[in-house]
Design goal:
Length: 160
Amino acid sequence: MDEKESMRLMRLAIDRARETMNQQIGGPFGALIIDQNQRVIAISSNSVLKDHDATAHAEMNAIREASHVLNTHDLSGCVLYTTAFPCPMCLGAIIWSNIKTVYYGCQPNDADQIGFRDDFIYQFMNSHFQDPSVLHLEEFERDACLHLFDEYQKKQFKLY
């Protein structure tokens, strides 16, 4: 894909983000997914405020929409354009959905400068999840949960 087409796709994500940001639906975040044929299959924006859903980030919404359009959880071969470097949650979803290429606009420190907490989460992860002022994580009932995992493995379901 040439640079001019990539710029056009990023502008679509920017335009969607600007539209919903000005409607106070969410922050300045837009995302777009194209399939292997370079066809736009999803374009979305952040809708945290409208949906009252902390997971309604632009990338998450675009992944949900693309999965629905393609009727699959596996977005291999798709490419994501997003107005900002994905937060840790979105990075996880991108990886789980098998998207291998992401083009992003703003860097994490750009989001930090306007009040978003991505860097705060990265710092918590770099502390090996050991800052109880952020989140208390404690292993509990591992044996019972391992039994559930064993049951799943014995059923030989397809892994995703």
